[in-house]
Amino acid sequence: METRHAHLDLAHGPAAPRAARRFVASVLGDWGVAEETVESSQLLTSELVSNAVLHGSGAIELVVTEVDANEGVIRVQVCNGGDGVPTMRRANRDELSGRGLRLIDEMAQGWGSEHVDGQTLVWFELQSRVP
After folding, report:
1. Which of 34, 83, 105, 124 is positioned for an S-S bond with 131, CB 3.0–4.6 A?
2. Residue 108: C-alpha distances to residues 10, 13, 42, 43, 95 (Å)
3. How many folded domains does the chain comprise?
């Protein structure tokens, strides 16, 4: 069985998280992924893309891949310019940011990051529930 994937280039800016959420919902909906997984994917994608806008530079590449069709595992990865290392931290109550990676760590089956050719790539995986 061939692995399915979808790709979107996003302009670096405040509209990127919304466009990413819509793209992920459309792709996963077309693939027949359970609504609960679509919603979780949208939330986690929004966190990754928001981090790319806040901490990165240049265009943002979003890739959605069906890693394992039999197990229903999907991977969402975000790549952008920059050499920062994503770091999970504990945000203070009055801070408006700083909770995204902790949320991803709690909700995703796995996540990670790496540097590739001067860019930062961050990904998460979720296992879809059967609708």
Report:
1. 34
2. 23, 25, 12, 11, 23
3. 1
